[in-house]
Each structure stands twice: as C-alpha cells, then as structure tokens.
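[stage:ingest] chain + small molecule (4'-deoxy-4'-aminopyridoxal-5'-phosphate)
[stage:ingest] validated
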Amino acid sequence: MKCDTDGEWHRGQLEPFGLLEVSPSAGVLNYGQGIFEGLKAYRTTDGRSLLFRPEENAKRMIFGAERMCMPAPSVDTFVDAVKQTVLANKRWVPPVGKGSLYVRPLLIGTGPVLGLSKSPEYTFLVYAAPVGDYFKEGPAPIHLKVESMYSRAVHGGTGGVKTICNYAPVLKAQLTAKKEGFTDVLYLDALERKYLEEVSSCNIFIVKDNVIATPEAKGCVLPGITRKCILELAQSLGYKVEERKVDVDELMDADEAFCTGTAVVVSPVGSVTHRGTRVLFSNSGVKRVSSIFYKFLTDLQMGRTADTRGWTTEV
Ligand code: PMP
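[stage:predict] done
[stage:export] tokens:
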C-alpha cells in the first residue's frame, strides 16, 4: 500500500511475489529511507498458525518511522497486513519442528528525490518465506567475537530503530568474524569501546549470581521484542533484572550469557573472545537460565502451553 503527500495510506492488495518498480531517484535507494520488521508465524501441534506479539512489531515500526521522517501504517493496518499475508501463505507455514514462516514488513520511501529531503511517496509491503529453525536441535551455543574495530551505532544515530541503514555497517564485521570461525559479532559502544550494545541481529543478557542484566535499549540498542518478553518473564519468575550499562569485563566474568531475538529465540553464549582472550561458558545446559526462557517461549509459540499473557495471535 502507498502513502503520498496527503499522509493517508491507500488500501493495498495481495499480489504474487514479484519485482518492485521504483524510480532510480527513490528516497530509499539514495538516502536510505527504509525500515523493516521481522516476525514469524508458527504451526502449532494442533495445526493452527500463530503470530507472536505482532502489535509490538507495529509499534516499533511507528517509533522508527518518526526517527526516519517517514509516515507509518497504524498498528491495526500493520497487523491486518501481516495476518492477510500469513493467511494467503498458510500452506507454507511449516509443521512443528520444521521451521516457521518468516514475515517481513517493509516501509520504504519510493518517491523521487534529488537533494536530501523527504520522499514524496512511501510504500508499505509485507512478504513472507518459509525458513528452517535457526538451530536444528534446540538452542546451540553462540560463539561471539567482541568487535574492536567496527561500530554498529553512534549516539544520536539510528541504532535504536530497525532501519535498513543499520545493517550495512555490520556486514563487513560479520563476514570477517564468520571467516574466523565465530557465530556472530558483539558490538561495544562506539565512544569508550567498553560497554555492551548488541549482537548483529539479537540482544544480549548476562547472568551473575541470579541477577540478569542487559544493556539499556536506549539510542544505540534495538529494543528487541524477545528482549522485552524475557525482561517480563524473568521478573515474574523472581529474578532480579537490571537494564543498565554492562561493562564487557562483566560479561567475561558472568556465570552465563545468552542472546535473544526472533531468529535465535533464546540462545546460550558458548564463548566470548575479546582482544584475544577467550572465555568459555560451559555450565550444563539444563541448569542454564536461558534454557528455561527458551522452553517457555517455544512452548507458547508452538501452542504447547496455554497463552495466559495474550502474546499469540491466531491467523
Ligand atoms: N538487535 C538487532 C540489531 C536485530 O536486528 C534484532 C532482530 N530484530 C534484534 C536485536 C532482536 O529483536 P527481536 O527480538 O524483536 O527479533
């Protein structure tokens, strides 16, 4: 669906996946006016299809659009478009244990601009594709490289919103780390290179003496929806939870660390390498705090437990 200078979203329709025609001078191609979201539809054990907190993705898009000077669809319009896309692709939602249907809402400036200014037209679209489980046999440990050369976000920048622009600067760091045998990259603050921010596509938590801490999702860190769930769950399970600056030395000394995100759900950190020093987190899988959260979320997403929080939406 499209929005032009009148600020109104005009009704869109379902179309087969195909090419998108945009002007070479489109705002998104020249000045990066683009935001996306990522969510998954899961098949339940009794054959239903469930979305997980889609209204949270809608709210995050609205928040990001304000920073990127773009109009955004309302929560209802966003959720309705996501539901329609899942409904139209229901046969592609894989059975339990075989993955999920990844849904990608995208908001881009498609109007022509030459000088740096707002695009006169915006397009909101949703596409979907089946994906396998991130880890084939339950959550596997992630091996992180703490990045010491490249930064993901700067103060006053766009690190805290899900704009397409944030993913270009991390590609080089990510590809280099993968070549070196790491699973992913953990970014530190760009100023002091001392405080944890996040991993390329997930948030990070540390556990020490039953206290769970995670960097504040302000400014540079994306407020992950899985992160938000874990903060709520941890509190309800009686853990002390802290959102604050987390020094990289605290991570190296933690009892446990884990990452959260739509793709990884909740995955334990197996090792962290920082300036040549490698710390292994080898505590037994069943005792991990992260395994409690992983089970809780996946049971809910697959419909194996009753949803008392209203976090799932049936399609
Ligand atoms: N940080 C970044 C940079 C991400 O791309 C993602 C994935 N959306 C996350 C964190 C985790 O967010 P969520 O739990 O909403 O998937």
